[in-house]
Amino acid sequence: MRNLSAFVYLVLALWNLLSPPALLSSEGERILEIKRILELEINSSINPATLNYLDNAFKVAHNDSHELILIKINTPGGLISTTKDILTLIGRSELPIVIWVTPEGASATSAGAIIASGAHLLFMSDGTNIGAATPVELGKDLDSKDLRSKAVNDLVALVEGLATARHRNSQLFAKMVSEASSFPASEAKKNGLIDGITNSIKELCLALNKRSIEIQGKKFILEATDPVITKYEMDFGQKLLNILANPQLAYILFILGMALLYFEMQAPGGFLAGSIGAIFLLFAAIGFQVLPVNWGGMGLILLSFILFLLEIWITSYGLLSIAGLAALITGSLFLFRTDNAYIQLGTGVILSIALAIGSFLALMGYFLFRDWKKNKKHIAHFNDLRGAEGVILEVRDKTTEGLFCYSLKANGEIWNGLSQNPHKVGDKVKIISQRADDLFVEF
C-alpha cells in the first residue's frame, strides 16, 4: 500500500510539473508559452466606446484561448473615468497585456500614458512619444487651484503605484502628470519608462521571448517563438459610438437638438424638426454619458416607431420615415453595450430588419405615387374620388347645415359622407364632389 501511495504521489508530481502553463523555471517562475496573440488597436480618444471595445476583446481572448493581448495605441487622451475603468480591466485580466505605442509619429498622451503605465509590458516604436498626462478640461487647464491639485495628486498616486508594480520608473511617470512631461521613445527606454523599442511585429515577438512578468502576484516567463496573431477590430456600433463620444460633437448635437425643439414649438404641427431634435438629444445624452448606452439605444428604437406612426398622419414626404429608420438602426447597434453583456445583435440581423421596414415603406410610397400620377387632375385634386361609387357604412346625425351625415367606404377608404337625401346602411351612392375631409354623394 505504501508503494502504491508513493507511486500515485510521484505521478501527480510529474503531472503538475509538466502541465502547461505550470512549467517552472530554475527560479521558480511559471513558463507561459505564447502561441496565440489577440491584437487590438486604439487610434482615437479614450471614451466609453474604447472601454466597450476592450471589454469585449478581453472576453474573446479568454474564451478563444489566447495567451496574450497586444494593444497598439495612438491616442491624444480622453476621459479620466473611462481611463480608470480600463486600468481596472487590465488589472483583472489573467492574461498578460502588452501595450505598444506605434507607428512612427504616434503618441500615448494624457489618458493614453496613464493606461500605458498599467500594462504588464510596454513598448514604443522609434519616432513616438509618451507623457503630457496633466488633467485638463475641454481645451484648457482646470481653473480651480484646489480642484487641479486634487485631480493631479490622485493621478500621480495612481501612476506611481502602477509603475512601481510593473518595475518601471515611477518618478518620471509621476512627472508626466504633475509637470506634463513628455518623453520620446529613446529617452523613455533610457530612463526605464518602457520595456523596449520595437518597430515591427517580428521585433516585438523577439522582445517578448524570455521576458519575465508578474500577473496578479504570480511570476511568469514568456516563451514567444512564433505566435499566431489575430486582429480584433471595433464593430460598426462601437465605431459609431466612438464618433458620438467626442465631447465637442456631443455638445454640438445637444445645441442642434435644443434648437430644433425650439423651432418645433415656434411652428408646431409638422413634428419633423422636433423628431430630428429628439434624435440629436439622445445622441448627445449618450455622448455625455448622462444616459447609459443601452438605455439610449432603447430610446432611439422607441422613437423610431413613434416616427413611423407620425408618418401616417403627417405629410412629410418620407422624411419622418427616413429619420425613423436612422433611429432604429443606430438604436439597435447600441443595444447590449454594457460591461456585463455577453450577447449582442449581429449587424446582419439589424440590417435585415431595417431593410424589411424600409422596403415596406418604399412600397407604400410607390403605390401612393402611382395613384397620384394616374390621376389626371392631381394638381388640383390629389386622390380625386369624384364619379366613384361608395357604400354607406353608418348613418350619423345631421350637420348644422341640415345635411344628412354618413360614414361611407369608397375605393377602400373610409370617408365622411354628406347628402341632401336620406340613405340607409348598405346603400350605394355616387360621389359628386369632394372636400378635404368630406364627400358629397347622391343616388
Based on the coordinates given, report the CATH architecture of the largest domain: Alpha-Beta Complex
Strand share of the residues? 15-25%
Can you count the helices?
14
The largest pleated sheet is described as: 6 strands, parallel
What proportion of the residues is helical, as a percent range? 40-55%
Structural class: alpha/beta
How many separate domains?
3
The radius of gyration is 33 Å
CATH fold naming of the largest domain: 2-enoyl-CoA Hydratase, Chain A, domain 1
The top-level CATH class of the largest domain is Alpha Beta
CATH homologous superfamily caption of the largest domain:
2-enoyl-CoA Hydratase, Chain A, domain 1
Number of strands: 19
Using brief descriptors, characterize the structure shown.
443 residues; alpha/beta; 2-enoyl-CoA Hydratase, Chain A, domain 1; OB fold (Dihydrolipoamide Acetyltransferase, E2P); six-stranded parallel β-sheet; five-stranded mixed β-barrel; 19 strands; 47% helix
Task: Describe the overall structure.
There is one protein chain. Helices cover 47% and strands 20% of the residues. It has helices at residues 2-18, 48-63, 80-92, 111-117, 145-165, 170-178, 185-190, 201-208, 236-244, 247-266, 272-287, 293-313, 319-334, 347-374; strands at residues 30-33, 36-42, 68-73, 97-101, 107-109, 121-124, 129-131, 136-137, 140-141, 182-184, 196-197, 212-215, 218-223, 228-231, 389-396, 404-410, 413-419, 428-434, 438-442. It starts with a helix and ends with a strand. The protein is an alpha/beta fold and 443 residues long. It is elongated, with a radius of gyration of 33 Å. The model is unreliable at 11-22, 138-143 and 339-343 (pLDDT under 50). The chain has three domains: 19-234, 2-enoyl-CoA Hydratase, Chain A, domain 1 (Alpha-Beta Complex); 237-374, no CATH class; 389-442, OB fold (Dihydrolipoamide Acetyltransferase, E2P), CATH 2.40.50.140. The strands form five sheets. A six-stranded parallel β-sheet has the order 11-6-4-3-2-14. It is built from 14 helices and 19 strands. The longest helix is centred in the C-terminal third of the chain and has 28 residues, at 347-374.
